[in-house]
Design goal:
disordered N terminus; about 10% helix; 1 helix; Jelly Rolls; mainly beta; about 200 residues; five-stranded antiparallel sheet
Length: about 200
């Protein structure tokens, strides 16, 4: 009898899991990059040499203009988690709510910056360029980092490695795709996830 009860309980758990009743910590998240997978979720803009290298999405050279991976989908209110590695001289960023997916700039998108050596460090790593300064500027070069980005209505928040760097109101851009940038140096993206709010 005990064996029958254990089998019944096991089948019940399997049934609940298959029917979606079991909770999962990543519930609601869409994974766009996961190690060696994900380039198919983006359109390329510019000349960066985006490729899978050592199991991650990687770029380390391009033309005279920056190169981008631009999502095929548009997003309005969302949370993102981005795991990235940047060389000390990297110029990169995550561009949000882009108005034109073929012309990515820090004026037509919000740019969560990754740029430790930016001449004006107030808009360097951890800042939203031209919108929200960061003081002091954290350094991301030479290590794996995690950006957590929230855009809800006009409120924009950035958290880098568990430390909030930006919490600002700005209603200039309401929705659009996001883009990952290569500008100089080496940039790697290991995991990119997003969920709608």
């Amino acid at each position: 009898m005990k064996r029958l009860s254990a089998v019944s309980a096991g089948l019940l758990v399997l049934g609940l899991t298959a029917s979606g009743c079991a909770t999962h910590p990543d519930s609601g998240w869409t994974t766009l990059i996961d190690g060696p997978n994900g380039l198919e979720n983006f359109n390329r803009v510019g000349d960066a040499n985006w490729a899978i290298k050592d199991g991650v999405v990687h770029a380390d050279r391009g033309g005279k203009v920056p190169g981008y991976l631009v999502t095929k989908n548009s997003y309005k209110d969302f949370e993102m988690r981005v795991e990235f590695w940047a060389s000390h001289d990297a110029n990169s960023g995550i561009f949000l709510r882009c108005a034109d997916p073929t012309k990515i700039t820090d004026k037509t998108c919000y740019e969560a910056n990754i740029f430790d050596q930016r001449p004006d460090p107030s808009y360097g790593t951890g800042a939203i360029v031209n919108v929200a300064k960061v003081e002091p500027m954290p350094k991301a070069g030479g290590q794996w980092n995690t950006y957590e980005i929230t855009a809800k209505g006009s409120r924009l928040m950035l958290t880098l490695n568990g430390v909030k760097t930006v919490d600002v109101e700005n209603g200039q851009l309401a929705s659009g795709p996001f883009a990952l940038q290569w500008g100089q140096g080496v940039i790697k993206f290991r995991k990119v996830q997003i969920r709608s709010l």
